[in-house]
Write a structure and sequence with these properties.
Strand content of chain B: 5-15%
Number of strands of chain B: 19
CATH topology of the largest domain in chain B: Rossmann fold
Radius of gyration of chain B: 26 Å
Number of domains of chain B: 5
CATH architecture of the largest domain in chain A: 3-Layer(aba) Sandwich
CATH class of the largest domain in chain A: Alpha Beta
Oligomer: heterotrimer
Largest interface: A-B, 49 and 65 residues
Strand order of the largest sheet of chain B: 12-11-15-13-14
CATH topology of the largest domain in chain A: Glutaredoxin
Number of domains of chain A: 2
CATH superfamily of the largest domain in chain A: Glutaredoxin
Number of helices of chain A: 7
Number of strands of chain A: 4
Order of helices and strands of chain A: HHHHEHHEEEH
Helix content of chain A: 40-55%
CATH superfamily of the largest domain in chain B: NADH-ubiquinone oxidoreductase 51kDa subunit
Chains: A alpha+beta (about 160), B alpha/beta (about 600), C alpha+beta (about 240)
Strand order of the largest sheet of chain A: 2-1-3-4
Distance between the termini of chain A: 18 Å
Radius of gyration of chain A: 17 Å
Largest sheet of chain A: 4 strands, mixed
Chain lengths: ~160, ~600, ~240
């Protein structure tokens, strides 16, 4: 998928929100990702020059933390919780079924740009395990058979 | 300080004697529709014109997550569980207006003998000692007045008006408060060390990274009662000589971030944060930093690097972070639950606090009880209680009549504890003695259908993914250990592997740079210690007794039970099940089967088994 | 001066020195891979670990980072230390099976093979990070960094291709202990090959003899840093008066 072009005003607004504090780099990148659904290259470069942080360091941070994606993501992001409590209740099967149904691998985006499938190491809703979060909405007590109906809710 | 007292009285007076519908809106109950139910109640109240006699309160997590959505009608404390949107009308009309109990929403004891009406009598809560967590059910985290109404911020009033920093340190030290994040280090010792260290400015940090999978105590505290943590931090900052604080909240907890932000803003508006707190001359401000999805950032030096805007790489701690921490300045870092205990200690005194718990582990601890357990949720108990009491008396034992196998404590740094050790008291030291640790408080219960070798592999894979990659023993060593576990789970294991795993465990434990790598071998070592026979089964017999490791199991039809209903045929995602004829059992084609488990889950006749 | 014991020998060291520095000053050998005098200690390879006793507390520490203390007792070859080194070398051998430096170092410690399966590629990078540390701390450009996390980590330019900050000085090439970064000057082009990508940089021609003597970007950097006139850098080392 092609890169999105970014607006400097939008980025400046985000930087100002955090008082252009270098220590808030991660929060800044997260807000940028929330805006564009991924971290566009131009945005990463903009942050580097505006905050005076070497580009290599911003890039290191963007690639170190799992929350960030440097590739455009699908319209909907599926997070399958792979925490221990969910694992013990069968999360691995849920992930496998997700891969089957979306026809994509964990960490990747479907060819039609609809879903990005990712795993996450514990969202803290362990009582509901196994848990899947789609676009921030929590679906608990997942079973292999509930995967398809869940995905069908999204277009 | 009198200002605060006056404010509290004013708040209490202005609160009419109303019925309050408390709807749990912690992350767990949100998934059950908490917000929607609360909104529906709001609409009913408006419709009925009863705004002056009925109030709605959205609260944080109540802890009995298994029975979500929880709704409690106060002041009678009528406890409704498993509430759904469809129940709102009935609850409003029958209980709120007419005072009648809806039996089907009550908690019923497992033996079916009694229906519990009031919250205090629910066995799950009754056996706990909810000193910290109990407040969650009574406050809306977005309303500072709620916290003040229950006595909140009186501890800082006491501290700022009548105690010197050294006295605060003495009091917290006498209470015996040890860090609740897993390290168990005496909190007051950290504060003293920072107070006496050279360097300005000094910092205090709240670690809300809560990376241990299965743990959600800190999430629920930060979401449900953020002011208790702020109050603790103000006191700790005062004691250690700091004026700036940070709360580091994991990226995966958006509601905790939101509620913490609201709490800070409201506390600032009330003069409880910022300059000249309560007119005392003491300044303290707090900032929120979000994590980016890295377990290693729960480690103190990695967390601090992250706050500095760098990657979460730990560094050697030959000089304590209390002397050289954030930006190389003296820094106190404590866990969420540790901070939440501080106002309690100040308000009720160190002697009272020290009367709870065991000799070296004072106070209560909040545990997340999850996995194969009936009463999944958050449990706050005095330290010294046994594992058996937590799992069986509070947790309600194992569901579906399955047999208990082990409980995992201490997360990826801990280990498994088998059945014969269940009478061990839970505290900072007892579990460590048998190879595990109490850790942050996650307790993951496993039954006969869980494979201990698979769990060891799971933890290694987890840690391999989460390793920062800086040091060789952790980065390369955990990967190789995981590869060995992969081989064992796939039937390619050899007996020499076990010795190799033990050898690597010793070297990695000794050689790794930080706690992640140093404790990474623990799950492997404890499963080897208590469940060696399972490893031998995988290696020698090429069998997985629990029926989990895909390469060693296969799915088969139990011919006597199969009714050829064909439900499994439809559900199979790869078309591996063949329908033969009406009175003939279906057939699973092993060469096509991916062992996803859909057929077993679907079958209503117990006609699918794992061999 | 501080008095401490290393392997039974009493030695003196200035306060603030590390155990490794004190050992080296006294010709006591402790193996290292990620240490270089030009940059701050990092503590990543773990080869320099030693067992120290202070009072009644015994600990395993990285000698490149641990400061000397009065009365410290250091043992550089206890069983636990030797086991750590053996594991580290076996792991590195498996990671970089074709690196002559890793093979040589392992052999010098008595390790001829690894019990772990070799990676398949020609990788010689042991992720000691000396290259990125030199680029950041000495050159001050931070042109390359460690990208990714865990076993997927790699030394790379931003986005694996952004050469804006790189001045092609070759410092990273010189400091790499395993030759994992390669540099080749061919006429007017310098080609640098990092573990993740290869790039070419234009070389400056000497105004006098016509030889290509330094990357143009490095010259610009030096002009900027020194504040001297550009003409001062028009001649190569040999042709300068």
């Amino acid at each position: 998928m092609p890169e999105i072009s970014v607006k400097n005003e939008t980025l400046n607004c985000i930087l100002d929100r955090y008082k252009r504090d270098r220590g808030q780099l991660i929060s800044i990148l997260q807000d940028i990702q929330a805006e564009y659904n991924y971290l566009p290259r131009e945005a990463v470069k903009f942050v580097s020059s505006e905050l005076g942080i070497p580009l290599s360091q911003v890039y290191s941070v963007a690639t170190f933390f799992k929350a960030f994606s440097l590739q455009p993501r699908g319209r909907h992001t599926i997070h399958v919780c792979m925490g221990t409590a969910c694992h013990v209740r069968g999360a691995a099967q849920i992930l496998q079924q997700m891969e089957n149904e979306t026809k994509t691998c964990c960490g990747e985006t479907t060819k039609d740009g609809k879903f990005t499938l990712e795993s996450v190491n514990c969202v803290g809703a362990c009582a509901l395990g196994p848990v899947v979060v789609v676009d921030g909405e929590y679906a608990g007590q997942m079973t292999v058979n509930k995967v398809k109906p869940l995905l069908e809710k999204y277009d | 300080m009198e200002e605060l007292q006056k404010k509290r009285s004013r708040i209490m007076d202005s609160r009419p004697d109303v019925s309050t519908i408390a709807v749990c809106c912690g992350t767990g109950c949100q998934a059950f529709g908490g917000e929607k139910v609360a909104q529906a109640f709001r609409e009913k109240i408006a419709e009925s014109g009863l705004q002056n006699s009925v109030a709605i309160k959205t609260t944080g997590c109540h802890g009995f997550c298994e029975r979500g959505l929880l709704v409690v009608i106060r002041p009678q404390n009528i406890f409704y569980q498993r509430v759904r949107l469809e129940d709102v009308d009935e609850i409003f009309n029958e209980t709120v207006i007419n005072g009648k109990i809806i039996e089907r929403l009550l908690y019923i004891t497992p033996d079916g003998s009694s229906k519990i009406t009031s919250e205090e009598e629910v066995p799950f809560y009754k056996k706990q000692m909810r000193l910290i967590f109990g407040a969650n059910g009574n406050i809306d985290p977005a309303e500072i007045d709620d916290y003040i109404a229950i006595g909140g911020y009186s501890a800082i009033a006491k501290v700022l008006s009548s105690m010197k920093p050294e006295q605060v340190i003495e009091e917290v030290s006498a209470a015996g408060l040890r860090g609740r994040g897993g390290g168990g280090f005496p909190a007051a010792t950290k504060w003293k060390s920072t107070r006496e260290a050279e360097g300005e400015p000094k910092y205090v940090i709240c670690n809300c990274d809560e990376g241990d999978p299965g743990a959600f105590m800190d999430r629920s505290l930060m979401e449900g009662n953020p002011h208790s943590i702020l109050e603790g931090m103000i006191i700790g900052a005062y004691a250690s000589g700091s004026n700036t604080g940070f709360i580091y909240i994991r990226n995966e907890y958006p509601l905790a971030v939101k509620n913490a932000e609201i709490a800070i803003r409201q506390a600032e508006e009330y003069g409880l944060l910022g300059e000249n707190i309560l007119g005392s001359g003491f300044n303290f401000s707090v900032h929120i930093n979000r994590g980016g999805g890295a377990f290693v950032c729960g480690e103190s030096t990695a967390l601090m690097a992250s706050i500095e805007g760098k990657v979460g790489e730990p560094r050697a701690k030959y000089v304590h972070t209390s002397e050289r921490g954030l930006y190389d300045r003296p820094t106190v870092l404590n866990n969420v639950e540790t901070w939440a205990n501080v106002p309690l200690i100040i308000n009720r005194g160190s002697a009272w606090f020290a009367s709870i718990g065991t000799e070296n582990s004072k106070g209560t601890k909040i545990f997340s009880l999850v996995g194969k357990i009936n009463n999944t949720g958050l449990v706050e108990v005095p330290m010294g209680i046994t594992l058996r009491e937590i799992i069986y008396e509070i947790g309600g034992g194992i569901p579906d009549g399955k047999r208990f196998k082990a409980v995992l404590t201490g997360g990826p740094s801990g280990g498994c504890i088998p059945e014969n050790l269940l009478d061990l008291p839970v505290d900072f030291d007892e579990l460590t003695r048998v190879g595990s640790m109490m850790g942050s408080g996650a307790m993951i219960v496993m039954d006969e259908d869980n494979c201990m070798v698979d769990i060891a592999r799971y933890f290694l894979k987890f840690l391999e993914e989460e390793s920062c990659g800086k040091c060789v023993p952790c980065r390369e060593g955990l990967k190789r250990m995981r590869q060995i576990l992969d081989d064992i789970c796939e039937g390619k294991g050899e007996e020499s592997h076990l010795e190799l795993l033990e050898e690597m465990s010793a070297a990695i434990g000794d050689g790794a740079l930080c706690g992640l790598g140093q404790t990474a071998p623990n799950p492997v070592l404890t499963t080897l210690k208590y469940f060696r026979d399972e490893y031998i089964s995988h290696i020698v017999d090429k069998k997985c007794p629990a029926g989990v490791c895909k390469a060693l199991i296969s799915y088969h039809i139990v011919n006597e039970n199969c009714t050829s209903c064909r439900l499994c045929v439809k559900k199979c995602p790869v078309g591996a099940i063949e329908f033969v004829d009406k009175k003939i059992p279906v057939v699973i084609h092993q060469d096509l089967c991916t062992k996803c488990g859909a057929c077993k889950e679907t079958c209503k006749f117990n006609a699918v088994e794992i061999r | 001066m501080i008095t401490l014991k290393i392997d039974g020998r009493e030695i003196n060291a200035e306060p603030g020195k590390t155990v490794l520095e004190a050992a080296r000053e006294n010709n006591i050998y402790i193996p290292t891979l990620c240490v270089n005098e030009a940059v701050a200690a990092y503590g990543a390879c773990r080869l320099c670990m030693v067992e120290v006793t202070r009072g009644n507390r015994k600990r395993l520490v990285a000698s490149c980072l641990y400061e000397v203390a009065e009365g410290l007792v250091v043992e550089t070859r206890t069983e636990r230390v030797v086991n750590i080194r053996r594991l580290v070398m076996e792991l590195l051998l498996a990671r970089c099976p074709n690196s002559s430096e890793v093979i040589e170092m392992a052999r010098s410690m008595g390790i001829d093979s690894s019990r772990f399966q070799s990676e398949e590629d020609d990788n010689s990078c042991v992720l000691c990070a000396l290259c990125t540390r030199v680029c950041r701390e000495v050159v001050g450009k931070s042109a390359i960094s460690l990208v990714g996390r865990g076993t997927n980590r790699k030394v790379a330019l931003p986005f694996c291709e952004d050469t804006d900050a790189c001045i092609a000085c070759g410092s990273c090439v010189y400091v790499c202990p395993t030759g994992a970064i390669k540099m080749e000057d061919n006429g007017d082009v310098r080609r640098i090959t990092w573990p993740s990508s290869t790039h070419e940089f234009k070389m400056k021609k000497c105004a006098s003899c016509g030889s290509y003597f330094a990357p143009e970007k490095q010259i610009s950097f030096m002009i900027q840093k020194t504040g001297l006139e550009a003409e001062k850098f028009d001649l190569c080392m040999n042709c300068r008066p």
